[in-house]
Amino acid sequence: MSQEVKNLSDEALVLHVKAGDEHAFRALALRHGARYRALAFRFLGDMAVAEDLVQEGFVKLWTSADRFDATKAKFTTWFHRVIVNKCLDEKRKRHLIPLPEGYDVEDGRPSAEEQLGMSAAHRKIMAGLAVLSDREKTAVTLSYFDGLSNKDAADVMLLNVKAYESLLVRARTKMRQNLMADKETLLSALG
Amino acid sequence: MVCEMNETEFEKLLSLYGADISVWPVDRQHKAHDFASTKVGKQLLKAEEGLVALFATTYAIGHEHIEDRNVNAFLARLSDIPKKYVQQKTRPSRLLDTFRKTLMPFEINVSPIMLMTHAAGFFIVLGMGLMVGFYGAIDSVIFNEQTIPTEIDISDTWFNTAETLSLNPENFEE
Known about the structure:
The structure holds 2 protein chains of 2 kinds. Helix content of chain A is 72%, strand content 0%. Chain A is mostly helical. In chain A, helix 3 runs antiparallel to helix 4 (47-63) and helix 8 (134-145) packs across helix 10 (161-190). Chain A is elongated. The mean pLDDT of chain A is 80. Chain B has a two-stranded antiparallel ribbon. In chain B, helix 1 (7-17) runs parallel beside helix 3. Chain B has helices at residues 7-17, 26-36, 39-61, 71-79, 81-84, 94-103, 112-135, 162-167, and strands at residues 140-143, 146-149. In chain B, strand 1 (140-143) and strand 2 form a beta hairpin. The interface between A and B is large, with 47 and 38 residues.
């Protein structure tokens, strides 16, 4: 891949992708692939599904790059929205899929968490996220794990910054209360 | 101790500004310090510190799984997408395209701003025409102290036949 392509901004690369430039597409995929894989994993907790979903997003980017309008949004804001929406759709779909017969057979394979050697802190944060609504979870994931600014994260969620910050405050409050409740449960269990 | 700040407000400020009360709004700091010294206040501050530490740990791990052994295989799969999928170019619908070509058989590039300016001009002129038509219609003119209608009534000849018209001596010039 040429150095020239590597130095281009995301938006410039998408323009090249629109023109059918495979090198530009590869540069974008290598630049952001791992980040979106981690983002989708945080939402879904299943690496295989997260990878499929992000791959689907990148396929869409290649086949329908015309749909991205660089004058309206940054590439990362737009693609974050694509991936977050796909994750939320996937989560909704999962609620609807009936379990097959004989599903209660234990799956002996190591879980994604075990495979990835997830830390105790990360497990704790995943448990903390479980008490949040999808919107709150999205806000926390974008701000605290993915490092987006409030403005960018608000753009991803199609909210104004004030509404986004209120959402974040609610999420933090819930997580804090959950942490306090956990601690009390632990202390009462210890007597 | 009587404390004017309640738990809800303390929690809200805690979520907005973090555990360091010195960066909270100045007018609330004194009351916040009072509340922080209560049992609930201490618990909330401790929980906030725990939450911050937890976020920091997770953030320090960053995109924590990018270095795992599967990430390279995943990125390679993404890089292969152009080889496996054909790019589609979005085209306007066939019907719309035909309609446009019928109206405007030649290619012309008009910017949206230019198009809007033209449309605005069209509607302004149209509006002015309607206003003049509505308020400014002239029914008659005064000529040599006589009122002459400007409209010509031709309705009395609508039902005349060609024969009637040709037999009428008034139709012939002397």
